[in-house]
Amino acid sequence: MVGIGLLVFVWVAVIAFVLGCVLKGLHYALTPMHLRWDLYPVAHEPRRDHGGSYLEEKDWWTHKRRTSLAAEVGVMGEEIVLLKGVWQHNRSLWWGSLPFHWGLYLLVVTTAGLVVQGLGWSPPVLTSVLPWVAGVGGFLLLLGSAVLLIERSSSPKLRPYTTPLDRLNLLLLLAFGAASMAVVLAGGFGGAGAAVTSILRFRAPEVTFLLGAQMALGALFVLYMPYTRMAHFFAKYFTYHKVRWDDRPYVAGGPFSSRLEAALEYGMDWSAPHIQSGHSWRDVVTHIPQQDEKGGQ
């Protein structure tokens, strides 16, 4: 009975994960286009070291643009592997965030390895390495979750922004990391491969209580992850590639011309000395403020 319940729960979690990612991805893709107030430096820009852009070139519109995919991949790698942004902007959080993310990475690799074995490819090196990957991943996730939980609960800067759901996420992942490490230390990792194979073949797996609990915790995390802020693992594609790094020049009738024209018609509902409410963004970006009596803007 436990095996049947675990089989159903795992497949429900996988379906919910895929569906959640697809729906949220479509939501991001179909949102109105940002207003192209480009932010430099841009990762693929050869002049990024001094924050420049192709607009510095004389008659830039007559030249073919030069971009660097390698530089963009390098920036992405620094963020994914080293969490460079967290290191630069929130050093105290980095000490927990790095092991937290690396623990998740290693457990994802473990799961992928078990799926590969379940599909029939099981070289000896994979069989011998996976328990170590799972054990180290579980330890790092346990450590990172504990450090983040303490930091978010004690830091005056982070505590106001830490919701009960944030704490629940960390507690769940702390338990998942502890269970993953315990399965390896208890010598139960050998049953994980057979369990995954059974699930892939839509058969109820035979698992120990510890292994079953570990798989259920992992499935629970997979089930709800796309519906929380942790969906940033794929949402960053939109915030980086489609907003921060999208500095393509505007060309009338070009690939995003209609979307940008539509965005310019959205209204303003806030005001400032230089921007009055009741106007569209087109008015804001095309209006030249009148000089005041002292000759200023």
Task: Name the descriptors.
Fumarate Reductase Cytochrome B subunit, 2 domains, elongated
β-strand percent reads under 5%
Alpha carbon gap, first and last residue: 75 Å
Helical content class: 55-70%
Tally the beta strands.
Answer: 0
Gross morphology is: elongated
CATH superfamily of the largest domain: Transmembrane di-heme cytochromes, Chain C
Which ranges are low-confidence, i.e. pLDDT below 50, for 5 or more consecutive residues? none
Can you summarize this structure?
This protein is mainly α and 297 residues long. It has 2 domains: 171 residues, Up-down Bundle (Fumarate Reductase Cytochrome B subunit), CATH 1.20.950; 72 residues, no CATH class.
List the helices and strands and how they pair.
Elements: H1 2-30, H2 69-82, H3 84-89, H4 91-118, H5 124-154, H6 164-185, H7 190-200, H8 209-224, H9 232-244, H10 257-264, H11 281-286
Helix pairs in contact: 1-8, 4-5, 4-7, 5-6, 6-8
How would you explain this protein's 3D organization?
The chain has 297 residues and is mainly alpha-helical. It is 62% helix and 0% strand. The protein has two domains: 2-31 and 87-227, Transmembrane di-heme cytochromes, Chain C (Fumarate Reductase Cytochrome B subunit), CATH 1.20.950; 38-82 and 231-257, no CATH class. It has helices at 2-30, 69-82, 84-89, 91-118, 124-154, 164-185, 190-200, 209-224, 232-244, 257-264, 281-286. It is elongated. The model has no long low-confidence stretch (mean pLDDT 89).
